[in-house]
Design goal:
heterotrimer; A alpha+beta; B mainly alpha; C mainly alpha; A: alpha+beta; 7-stranded mixed beta sheet; 6-stranded antiparallel beta sheet; about 55% helix; C: mainly alpha; 2 domains; 3-stranded antiparallel beta sheet; two-stranded antiparallel sheet; 5 helices; about 10% strand; extended
Chain lengths: ~700, ~575, ~200
């Protein structure tokens, strides 16, 4: 975790640099192209308004009237549209920079393609699905694929940041390799599984670059809302001209109207939700980007959004809830056997056992009972096999209870009457019993304890507060599962889980209306990953699993799922918060612009009209009031770019608490901030005599 | 305000709230098809209607079939009423020998009553035969109200239903609304009104010779029966031209008090019914609370404004257009209740109210008639705002928004937005048109900002199906009758159709069980949010024009300026 | 098409129910319960109908109490209000004129108080009632015109004043037509009493 954090910070610093800004400033111009403007009708309207006021400047110049004010309005409207483009460009730039560094190493790669037994050097980018390539020590793997022959250790640090090499071998659950990683020993044949431009990385790059970025359902709904508000304001502003005309007549005002096209356009741009419209795509892109920073690749923006809605998490016990390894924690002799005898036998049986469990038994015997033995040279080590499910030394065996019992009975031994009780007792505690025997005599049991990760309980507590239910998936028997579930604080568990059972559970949860996220790696997880609303495949998993899920975690860290959910929530919250802020801003803008327009109505000599009372901010002149509102409206976009990219502050809390906080900050803040901002700009304008 | 004034306000609110659970519970029984304590009496009546209409009450259809029936029924109701108005001279029960209504006014009137608006471009006592009143207007008073209730019930079913296709039977909901709810309540109220002196007669207008020897015609008619349903059904079309200010419609403080209760009774109680229909009483109470907050604020502000004095008219109190027996307090409760509840009746002339109280009456309608609103219509209207609120709030808690466990998606936002902005768009566009055209300005009775308010009030009232009139505007010209008819049509079906679509869409959705991450829509925070969204949408849309109408007039009045 | 037929037949059924049966039932029950009110609460003087209890009459003679001004000139078909707004010059002029007339009729100085309800028209234009204060204001004029002592009218007004309904609703008010009828009765009583006196003394 801490490693990711520091990594993230580094990236942020390096990404928010001058180069990015310069690049984005340039990129922003090209977004004035009608095709990209059309994507965002609210901002299109701003550009049209800028165009219209620019025309008004020319007209005023030609007519020989004062044109300074109109020019300033026109310029700031252009800035407003430009800033929106800039926001999008920055978000894209950040994602692109990150993706680019991943892509770079691959584009330079040459692949050794094997065709009809003949090896030839081809560029990695020309590889097609089904091609077979050879990779030997030192070679960079040219594309995503499956190991079809051989075994090798692979350095995936380029993508995952994890320096320890991983083993990849044909068949089984460790056969998938990712383009851009490096073989550091042995030789493997790899069958390429993606056409060029189709790989996970390519998809992700496409998503952040915006080329293939599709609007998510939620974004579509929000866009409809924004468009609706825009229509309302267009109506309000257009009809205002008529009402102003009536009022000017009624109050006997003659001469040119205060309510010019320029002013109406300015009012319209201030009222329509430009802030959120300008930042909407940046928010979406940066959500993807934040995932990428955590080394998670998503196939679609929708997947990220759905992650925010997930309310059931299926978590694998091992590696997520408990440390992968079980540790010996106690010895239980059966009746009539001395503890020392059991410990000694257990120790002997484990001396040559290099598995973590084996080593923990040795350690326990050393520390708890001060027993130190060397391996007797005359005895042979009996390794663990899937058939016997036991290991040992000479005549001593240790192993799963049923396996050892069968072994002992086979030798004509007797099962002690208290054994079953002891076995059950250990299982109930969530531990795994190992039975130890010496020939046909059962000596007792070793308790292997599953160690629950520190802090995981609190994590689940947070999730519960967020309204997310956690279900632990384990191959353990129900007794063990229940005990670990209780210790870890998960809400539910699925014991003796088979792939079919997982799939059935997901379907049941979905039928009840829940949205389910799960992590998986094996091929047999693929159906469940496909069924889940959010399926995060481990990069270390099989290709089948990676294709079935809609995200890939390059770190293969099952705990990541929780972060994925948080990123999804943060994405939605940022959208909501900025929408609220944008709408709340309008109140102040009315109080800036309406008195500017109508203070002269029904005025008597030497006295302003009654609507001058609406000038709560005490803005200097009508022109400076309107200009201040327009400038505020433009600058607020720039100020909020960092927020859009970072997302609003997220803490795992209940919905009501979160809402109350966000409402206070973005709702109330949204009402008050522009009052202050517009007043300040107005003061500055007065100081610099700009109007 | 005197202590006795406060007491009347308190009594009104208390009695209204006390009635909510009783009537709400009863209506829930009615719409769930259960037996009620009135079933022994009314059951045969209900079955009789089905028999004549050829309805099989156990049929149930999808939203499209339901809407189809609703539209046919309303279209036929419109045509039938139009025919009556145009042909009344040749039909019975016309002792005053009144002539046929002019076409524009007749279309406007038929549209008005079919859409539950009850905008009146005519004066009843001098225009309408008894037959037109009872067989035409009276009937539409019942069925337009029942139509609104039926739509609300369908929406509730759609929101509560779990992946269902059928939403019920329009004819059953319509008939049960009339037979079990509107008819018995109307009968009770009509008799109470008769006891207070409201007329109910088929005689020709008798003539009197006054003490000073002048001739005075005493207008009569079957008024009590029609007034009862006009209030209960949030219709509001006056039997007499001057509506509930007329002593024959509303002779005593008690008759006034009962009618005020009747105006808000069903809209308020329907929130309770809604809670029952969606299986969570709190969901209904929250809506009642939001309505209560908005109504309470509006009432408080209006009372404050109206109990002031008018510097422009020699610091006199605002008594122009008010009746002695109601006083200021009952005139204001009435104006606030009717403009909120989409009831077009008036017991005092809103045109002569203080600018702020008149402006609040206007603003009440601009909120879209969702604070109590028309029977049924107010509730389905506020549910459109609920959908918008849930969407914004839901995003802020970091989840795709959901209401009653169902996801709110683009399709629903589109429909809800349509329902919310269509009436507002009509108000702004038609008012703008009227103030720019000589035909629009011709009917004005007041100059200055008040003139703008009058036109604005007219289109706000029509487009939101309220029917209340500021009064000063002459509205029987072709410009206002035809444009007004269009405004009322859009205001009614521009909301009903999106609502029906949403009902159909939501019914098919799966409900997500609530969790700690679900934003609760049944708590105080939601009330605040809903109120804010309603105010902000209404406020942002109409603030500029309100500034040029009532607000600037208030300022001018304080300066003592007249036009 | 099926829905169309059902719509037509439903409209017929509901029209019969709500447009025929319901108003007839109310009419019948109303006739039984309050026959006088449903026909307009007519007030008779002898056999002559002189008006309705609920409709104001345009009293102008100094010897009668005057009701509130009516924007529609007390027309009953159709009734109407001024619908003048709070910043209406027309309304201001009307108020000034009414005040001047009232001051003149009551022989009062220009700065005298006039109850505002006598300066402003009612909503219906047919408001049959006045507040006790507005009645009191007219007592000197009426008493003078009728040759009565103001005290004689006090009891009359007292008995004609209705308090808030149910002790709570509305403000105290006086029905002008009923008050004027009572005024005539009082005068008649006094007249016959006086005639009786004269008869006695002649004997």
């Amino acid at each position: 975790m801490s490693q990711h954090k520091s990594q993230k910070n580094n990236q942020k610093n390096s990404l928010f640099n001058r180069e990015l800004i310069q690049q984005s400033l340039k990129e922003a111009w090209s977004k004035f192209h009608p095709r990209s403007q059309w994507q965002n009708p609210v901002m299109l309207l701003v550009s049209l308004g800028a165009l219209l006021t620019s025309a008004a400047v020319v007209q005023e110049m030609l007519a020989g009237r004062a044109w300074g004010f109109t020019l300033q309005i026109a310029l700031w409207l252009w800035f407003t549209a430009y800033f929106a483009n800039f926001a999008e460009a920055v978000a894209e730039g950040r994602g692109k920079a990150q993706a680019e560094s991943l892509r770079k190493m691959r584009s330079e790669t040459m692949a050794r393609r094997l065709k009809n037994g003949v090896e030839s050097q081809v560029p990695a980018s020309s590889l097609r699905k089904g091609d077979v390539v050879v990779c030997e020590t030192g070679d960079v793997i040219p594309g995503d694929g499956e190991v079809s022959e051989g075994i090798a250790s692979v350095d995936e640090s380029a993508i995952t940041g994890e320096s320890a090499p991983v083993v990849r071998e044909s068949g089984g659950d460790r056969s998938a390799v990712t383009g851009g990683t490096r073989v550091i020993s042995d030789r493997i044949l790899i069958t390429i599984t993606q056409d060029p431009g189709q790989s996970f990385l390519d998809q992700m790059i496409g998503l952040v670059e915006g080329a293939s970025r599709q609007r998510t359902p939620n974004e579509i709904a929000l866009n409809i809302l924004l468009l609706t508000l825009t229509v309302v304001f267009v109506l309000a502003v257009v009809t205002l001209k008529a009402f102003a005309f009536y009022s000017e007549q009624a109050s006997g005002l003659t001469g040119p109207s205060n309510v010019s096209v320029t002013v109406l356009v300015a009012l319209l741009v201030c009222l329509i939700p430009t802030t959120i419209a300008a930042l909407l795509s940046a928010i979406g892109i940066s959500g993807m980007d934040r995932l990428l920073q955590r080394n998670v690749l998503a196939t679609s923006g929708k997947a990220v959004e759905v992650a925010g809605d997930v309310d059931v998490l299926l978590l694998d016990k091992t590696g997520t809830i408990t440390y992968g390894n079980r540790m010996a924690s106690a010895f239980y002799p059966v009746a009539g056997i001395r503890t020392e005898r059991l410990v000694e036998a257990a120790l002997l049986a484990s001396l040559a056992d290099e598995t973590p469990e084996g080593r923990s038994i040795v350690l326990l015997a050393n520390q708890r009972y001060g027993l130190n033995l060397d391996k007797p040279a005359e005895l042979d080590f009996v390794p663990f096999t899937a058939q016997t499910r036991m290991s040992g030394l000479g005549e001593i065996r240790k192993g799963a209870a049923d396996a050892v019992m069968r072994y002992v009975q086979g030798l004509g031994g007797k099962i002690p009457s208290d054994l079953q009780n002891l076995v059950d007792g250990i299982a109930r505690k969530g531990s795994t019993p190992l039975v130890v025997c010496d020939q046909q005599t059962i000596l007792g049991l070793i308790e292997l304890k599953d160690v629950v990760k520190t802090g995981i309980r609190e994590r689940f507590e947070q999730l519960r507060r967020m309204g997310i239910r956690t279900i632990m998936i384990t191959g353990d028997n129900p007794l063990t599962a229940a005990a670990i579930a209780a210790e870890a604080g998960v809400d539910d568990y699925l014991a003796e889980a088979t792939p079919e059972a997982k799939l059935a559970r997901i379907r049941a949860e979905q039928a009840a209306g829940h949205l389910v996220a799960m992590v998986g790696d094996g091929t047999n997880d693929a159906p469940a990953l496909a069924q889940a609303d959010v399926g995060v495949a481990m990069a270390s998993g099989t290709q089948a699993a990676r294709e079935a899920g809609n995200m890939v975690d390059l770190d293969s860290n099952p705990t990541k799922l929780i972060e994925v959910v948080e990123i999804g929530k943060q994405l939605l919250m940022t959208r909501g918060a900025l929408t609220t802020f944008s709408i709340a801003n309008d109140v102040a803008k009315y109080f800036a612009i309406l008195p500017a327009l109508f203070a002269g109505l029904y005025a008597t000599q030497g006295q302003q009209g009654p609507l001058a009372a609406l000038n709560l901010m005490g803005l200097a002149t009508p022109q400076s009031a309107i200009l201040s509102a327009v400038i505020f409206n433009a600058l607020i976009i720039v100020f909020l770019i960092p927020l859009a990219l970072k997302g609003v502050k997220y803490q795992p809390q209940g919905a009501v608490v979160v809402l109350r906080k966000n409402l206070f900050v973005y709702g109330l803040g949204g009402i008050l901030a522009p009052f202050v901002g517009i007043k300040l700009i107005d003061l500055l304008l007065a100081v610099f005599h700009l109007v | 305000m005197a202590f006795s004034d406060w007491l009347q306000v308190a009594l009104f609110i208390l009695l209204l709230l006390a009635a909510v659970p009783i009537l709400g519970e009863y209506m829930a029984q009615v719409y769930q098809g259960q037996k009620t304590f009135l079933s022994p009496v009314l059951g045969p009546l209900e079955m009789g209607v089905y028999a004549v209409a050829g309805v099989n009450p156990s049929d149930s259809g999808d939203w499209k079939k339901y809407t189809q029936g609703l539209l046919w029924f309303n279209a036929l109701g419109f045509l039938f009423l139009l025919g009556l108005l145009l042909l009344q001279a040749f039909l019975p029960l016309n002792p005053q020998k009144l002539v046929p209504m002019e076409l524009g006014v007749a279309v406007n009137t038929a549209m008005s009553f079919m859409t539950n608006t009850n905008w009146q471009a005519y004066s009843g006592e001098s225009t309408l035969s008894y037959l037109s009143q009872m067989l035409g207007l009276g009937v539409q008073n019942f069925v337009s109200a029942a139509t609104g209730m039926a739509v609300m019930v369908v929406l509730a079913r759609g929101l509560a239903g779990k992946q269902i296709k059928t939403l019920g039977n329009f004819w059953v909901d319509l008939t049960r609304s009339v037979v079990y709810i509107l008819l018995p309540l109307s009968l009770l109220l009509a008799l109470a009104l008769v006891s207070q002196g409201v007329v109910q007669s088929f005689s020709a207008y008798p003539s009197a010779t006054t003490l000073e020897g002048a001739q005075q015609v005493v207008p009569l008619g079957p008024a009590a029966s029609q007034i009862a349903i006009k209030q209960l059904g949030t219709n509001g079309g006056g039997f007499f031209g001057i509506n509930s200010a007329h002593p024959f419609e509303n002779p005593t403080p008690l008759s006034n008090f009962l009618q005020m209760l009747a105006i808000l009774l069903i809209p308020a109680a329907l929130t309770w019914t809604y809670g029952r229909l969606v299986g969570s009483l709190r969901q209904g109470i929250v809506l009642l609370a939001a309505m209560g907050v908005l109504a309470g604020s509006s009432l408080g502000l209006s009372l404050w404004a109206e109990f002031g004095s008018n510097p422009a008219l020699g610091n006199l109190p605002f008594l122009e257009g008010k009746e002695t027996r109601f006083g200021i307090v009952n005139s204001v409760i009435w104006s606030v209740s009717t403009t909120l509840a989409s009831n077009g009746s008036v017991n005092a002339m809103h045109d002569s109210f203080s600018p702020l109280a008149g402006g609040l009456a206007l603003f009440n309608m601009m909120l879209g008639e969702v604070v109590f609103g028309g029977v049924g219509a107010g509730l389905y209207g506020i549910l459109m705002f609920v959908i918008l609120t849930v969407f914004i709030a839901g995003l802020m808690v970091g989840r795709s928004p959901e209401y009653l466990g169902k996801k709110i998606e683009g399709a629903q936002i589109r429909m809800a937005a349509l329902a919310v902005i269509l009436p507002s768009a009509v108000v702004l566009l038609f008012t703008a048109m009227a103030v720019l055209l000589p035909v629009g300005l011709k009917g004005l009775n007041n100059a200055g900002p008040h003139g703008l308010s009058e036109i604005l009030y007219a289109f706000t009232s029509m487009a939101n199906n309220n029917g209340s009139a500021f009064g000063g505007l002459t509205v029987n010209t072709p410009f206002y009758t035809w444009l007004g008819a269009l405004a009322m049509l859009i205001g009614r079906f521009g909301v009903i159709l999106p609502v029906m679509v949403i009902a159909g869409q939501m019914a098919q959705k799966q409900a997500v069980p609530a969790s700690g991450g679900t934003f609760p829509t049944d708590g105080g925070l939601f009330v605040i949010l809903l109120v804010s969204v309603i105010l902000i949408i209404g406020g942002l849309t109409f603030f500029p024009v309100l500034a040029l109408g009532p607000l600037v007039e208030h300022g001018l009045m304080l300066q003592g300026k007249v036009f | 098409m099926n829905e169309f037929l059902i719509a037509l037949r439903s409209l017929i059924a509901l029209t019969l129910l709500t447009g025929v049966a319901y108003p007839l039932l109310v009419t019948g029950l109303g006739q039984l319960a309050n026959a006088e009110a449903v026909q307009g609460s007519l007030i008779k003087r002898g056999e002559q109908v002189v008006g309705s209890r609920w409709l104001a009459q345009p009293f102008q003679q100094a010897g009668y109490f005057w009701p509130r001004p009516s924007a529609g000139d007390y027309a009953t078909v159709a009734s109407g209000a001024s619908n003048k707004g709070p910043t209406s010059k027309d309304l201001l002029d009307k108020i000034k004129a009414r005040k001047a007339d009232l001051l003149k009729a009551h022989l009062l100085p220009a700065d005298a108080f006039v109850p505002p309800e006598l300066l402003m028209a009612s909503g219906s234009g047919l408001d049959p009632e006045l507040s006790p204060a507005a009645v009191q204001f007219q007592v000197p004029r009426v008493a003078h015109a009728r040759g009565l002592q103001p005290q004689e009218l006090a009891a009359l007004i007292q008995s004609a004043t209705k308090g808030p309904q149910l002790g709570l609703l509305g403000a105290p008010r006086v029905n002008v037509l009923e008050l004027n009828m009572a005024l005539l009765q009082l005068e008649q009583r006094k007249f016959s009493l006086k005639q009786g006196h004269q008869h006695e003394s002649q004997q």
